[in-house]
């Protein structure tokens, strides 16, 4: 006879220190994970994330996870201006150090309405972030930085540099799926 098996609810808290290819580091962030689905954003992916997955499979209700290590470098892309010798007027950078940043690509193009620019971020070919900003302000770099900050992205940051004209060069406003 097949009796119904009683399901025991998840209980307990597990602390996990692990190495991953994306996400914040100790001591700045202790990620409070309430489910396996929480692993698909920060703190990241990689071999160490298996520890948190196994904790949930073992019955943990919560995992307090910290990424440890050095993480390597930030993936970056300089955006140039219209001067004769183009200067970097803004830099797009992956939010965290690690190899995930090498799989992030961006596109920057004039919108069909011709008064806006579209900034798109792709991870493994999937659109993960979009921001739009007004053209013709005289400071494209600041407008992009402000739009990306307002979007609240978990993928990239944009930093305006103090050099140059502030207006993006023609080849910068035609970036199409360019890797950081």
Q: Can you tell me about this structure?
A:
This protein is mainly beta. 12% of the residues lie in helices and 34% in strands. The chain contains two helices and ten strands. A four-stranded antiparallel sheet has the order 8-7-6-10, with helices on one face. A three-stranded mixed sheet has the order 1-3-2, with helices on one face. Strand 4 and strand 5 form a beta hairpin. The chain is elongated and about 60 Å long. It starts with 12 loop residues before the first strand and ends with a strand. The model has no long low-confidence stretch (mean pLDDT 78).
Map the helices and strands.
Elements: E1 13-18, E2 31-33, H1 49-57, E3 62-67, E4 76-80, E5 88-94, E6 104-110, E7 116-123, E8 126-134, H2 140-151, E9 156-160, E10 174-179
Parallel strand pairs: 1-3
Antiparallel strand pairs: 2-3, 4-5, 5-9, 6-7, 6-10, 7-8
